[in-house]
Design goal:
Keywords: Cell shape, Cell wall biogenesis/degradation, Peptidoglycan synthesis, Transferase. The protein has 233 residues and is of the alpha+beta class. It contains 6 helices and 12 strands. The strands form 3 sheets. It has a 5-stranded mixed beta sheet with strand order 3-2-1-10-5, sandwiched between helices.
């Protein structure tokens, strides 16, 4: 093979895709300077690698936001954060102005970070997702953010969002392209499904349960497809 052709092929093989530009601000940068060293120590103590891929679950009834990090092929629970406030009770958001906080399966990409939010730091959850768009649900700018007040979002307090936001930022910085974010009304065990069996939202909740069960079994986030206008796995 001619040397010039060899060099050309080598250059093509070594080309890397451009790094995703992450939204940033002085506020977010200052937060990382303080928070990240502490988080790195906590990660190391749990045998987790700094910058590992992130997966997030929210449970409304338990007021809990879980951050899981990838370790090998599976994910390990790193920390559970108390949700300070969300509005509208159980049942998912369906229209702009209904005061409800969404339930369902969402995807977070780097562009959804808001490092200059009026609520300290914020992450857009991606509502409405594909299923919700097919159902004609309306609304936008639904966030996980700081402070302890919200209509339709998940308010975590400033100290908690600083840790959650930093873990997500570092995962993106290390190459994760998207983060699965699953929001459930409650832990979808047999017990809780029985407790809430008479709720009018139960038909919808049953479409969420297979995603919950798959993760509980495999500790790998479940990707849905669409069947009709519903989630399917």
């Amino acid at each position: 093979m001619p040397k010039l052709l060899q060099l050309l092929l080598l250059s093509l093989l070594t080309v890397t895709s451009p790094k995703t530009e992450l939204p940033d601000s002085k506020r977010a940068s200052d937060v990382r300077t303080i928070v990240w060293p502490r988080l790195q120590k906590e990660l190391k103590n749990k045998g987790l690698k700094a910058g590992s891929a992130v997966y997030i679950r929210i449970f409304k009834y338990q007021d809990a936001l879980e951050v899981w990090l990838k370790a090998g092929p599976k994910y390990i629970l790193f920390k559970t954060y108390d949700i300070c406030y969300y509005s509208g009770g159980l049942g998912t958001k369906t229209r702009s102005g209904d005061g409800k906080s969404p339930e369902g399966f969402y995807t977070v990409e780097p562009k959804q970070l808001n490092p200059a939010s009026n609520y300290h730091l914020a992450i857009n959850i991606g509502y409405p997702n594909k299923v919700e768009q097919l159902k004609g649900y309306t609304g936008d700018a639904v966030m996980i953010h700081g402070h302890c007040a919200s209509i339709g979002c998940y308010a975590m307090t400033d100290p908690r969002i600083e840790e959650i936001y930093t873990l997500i930022y570092k995962a993106f910085e290390s190459g994760q392209q998207k983060i699965n974010l699953d929001i459930y009304p409650f832990r979808m065990t047999k017990n809780y499904m029985g407790i809430f069996a008479q709720q009018p939202y139960m038909p919808f909740w049953k479409t969420l349960q297979p995603g919950y069960d798959l993760f509980e079994k495999n500790h790998i986030p479940a990707d849905y497809h669409i069947k009709g206008n519903d989630y399917a796995f």
